[in-house]
Each structure stands twice: as C-alpha cells, then as structure tokens.
UniProtKB/TrEMBL annotation:
The keyword Acetylation applies. This is Glutaminase. The keyword Acetylation applies. Homotetramer. The lineage of its organism: Bacteria, Bacillati, Actinomycetota, Actinomycetes, Micrococcales. Its EC number is 3.5.1.2.
Amino acid sequence: MTDQRVHDDLVAILEETREIGWGEPADYLRDVQRRDLDALAAAVCTTEGEVVGVGHHDRALALQSVSKAFTYAVALQECGLDRVLAFIGVEPSGEAFNELSQLSDGRPFNPLINAGAIMAQALVPGDTLEDREALLLDRYSALAGGQLEVSEEVLRAEQVRADRNFALAHMLASSGMLDVDPHEVVQGYLRQCSVEVTTTQLAVMGATFASGGRNPVSGERVFDERVVQQTLSVMLTCGMYDASGGWVTQVGIPAKSGVSGAMLGVVPGAMGLATWSPRLDSHGNSIRGVELFRRLSDRWDLHVLRHR
Ligand code: GLN
C-alpha cells in the first residue's frame, strides 16, 4: 500500500466516523479534556518506518490504560516470563477494567486490567518510585522514538479519583503479592497513565511491537521478540476489557484502549495503528476509535486470523 493510499483511506474513514457524536468522555477527566472533546485522529506507522497521521494526530493525549501494555512488556523484559507469570495471569476477566477481581491463587487475571497493571508496575525493578519511573519513561520513549513526559495536569485528576486503584493495591497486598508500599505502587501506576504522547507517536510505539520489538524509525531494539509475542497475545485476548471477545471477532488485531480515548492496534509484521477520540462507550473504550478500527480492519484486511 502506498503512503498516499494509506493517507486517503485514513481521511475517508475519519470523515465517516466523525458523524458518530454520542458517548461521553470519562467523567473525572472532563476538565482536562474540555479542549479535546471532539478531537479525532488516526495514525499508521508501517514496519518500514513510514508514518502517516490525519486529523488531530499531533495533539498530546494521555496514554492511560494503553500504558498497561508497555509496562507489562518492560516487566517481562526485566524480570523474565516465569517471574511475571507467577504474579500476573493471562486470562480475560470478562469484567470491567477496575474490578476487584483475582484468580483463585490471588493473581490478577491479566496485566491489562487495573489490578494486573498495578502488579506489573510493582514488578518494574528500581529502589524508588523515581528509579522505576526513569526506567519506564526511558523504555516508553524508545518505543515512541522521542522523549515522553508525565502530564502533571492529568496526574492531578488521576490522584483525585484514585480510591479504586488504592483498593486494588491493598487487595494485592492482602494476598501477599506486593512487597512494596501499595501507595507508592499506585502513584507509579497513575504517573504511567499520565504520560503524554501524540497519536502519531502512539502509532510508532505500535509499529515497534509490529516489528518484533525494534523501533522501525530509529532502528533501536527495545524489547526481545518473545516479550512482544507475549504482550501481543494478551492484547489480543484482554486488551479491550469486557468487550475483548467482540473485538477479536470483529476487528481481530491485538489492541489496547485507554480512558483518554486512545487506542493502539498492532498488526504483526505490518504496522502499528493508533486512534484518538475521547467519547467513550460503557466499557470505557473510544466509540469512534472502535469504529475506526473496525472499518480499517475491513478495508485493509487486517484480521490476523483471516484465511491467507
Ligand atoms: N487511570 C485510569 C484508571 O486507573 C486508567 C483506566 C483506563 O484507561 N481504562 O482508572
């Protein structure tokens, strides 16, 4: 596919989905997102490093839960698969992203719901919160090919509404899963959720996964192939929370959504895709984002299980 064809298709699909006006942004982020309520963006980065963005693709947005996939990959890379599996399962939970749920052995169901993401944050090596954040920001930035930072404005909004996340960390602590202070772990988790990217940068992060862990723009190897395979497997089965089954059947690519309205998709060996539109459905997934992905998957035949 030529860059021009990618560009034209993205523009056409963006216009088709612009009409979908319903859905509300996350309540607690309403102030932060007031300027961006009707923002709409899509971007693609191929495994050859070609980047195409349309709409508001250069505006900053918070990673929110999309960060869960990246932190899981960092934990896998640093601690190894066996250690991470000992603390975090790989089963779809079928429940909301912030449910207080655990497998019968006390592990969170998977790393892409809040309980598992808080656990993954606790597995990132480092003596202090600052050490762990420095490592995460370094790896996130390498994925994106540009220096990423925490948005203090988003972070403040997160901190006001963190009761549920503290409850989840205490649930893990009471099961003997945490050997670090639950409050500190939640702070780290909220900070990773508040890291800002553009939609275009998010597509490059996805393309790094699509390229087996090597950033196709900078050429830097960020993760081992096995780490990427594990992360993408969980994204395919659990990335859209309790809408994951419908997602696999209709769109069929590993993905992760965030409450900011961000969505990341990865087509292994081909491309990273990112969309942004803050109005959410009842699962906390972007309404226009889901629709954009559905249409792109159809138009470009992206379903990873299609007959070839
Ligand atoms: N910061 C949000 C939370 O922890 C992230 C959730 C999300 O993006 N779905 O509740």
